[in-house]
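Lay summary. Proteins are chains of building blocks that fold into shapes, and those shapes determine what they do. In this project we predict the shape from the chain. Here is one chain we studied, written as its sequence of building blocks.
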Amino acid sequence: MNSMRIVAAVVIAIAATGGGFYASHLMTGGETSQASEGTTKASGNAVDDLWKAQLQTAAGTQQALASFKGKPVVVNFWASWCGPCVKEMPTLSAMHREYAQKGITFIGLGVDSEKNVNAFLQKVPVDYPIYIAGFGGADLARSFGNNAGALPFTVVIDAKGVIRSTKLGEVDPKELKATLDAL
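And here is the predicted shape, written in a compact code that computers can read:
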């Protein structure tokens, strides 16, 4: 009986140690490139990875995000369980409608399950394209400099592939408009 307790304690200790290393990896962002504030040229990293992504739409079809390459894009990483994400969705939808005539596209990357994304969209209508990035979307967000892996996280990319701004947390509509007006 004592040997069973010892074995159980060793297994728990190993699991806790492994979990600690994994949590540390997540908190430090692993080996990703850091996006700085302001204007940053994406040099074969985050923006290229975004364009290479093949993601499922909320409607269930696969789409290459390369279709947005060469166009100004606002990329919003979000999740259905994220309060600030849910709160900013109507603002982002309104801005999408306002800036669509200027050729600026908004896309949402749900860092969530297909089931949760679709259930959310049944309750909260969003009029810009939503893709299901799954929990791997957090890695893509980290490549843009979101080392905390927190949500929401918004990235503005101009038509040349230059990261014009990143925002961790709920968007400030005035700041976002100023960035978009400068494109």
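What the prediction tells us: The chain has two domains: 1-30, 34-181.
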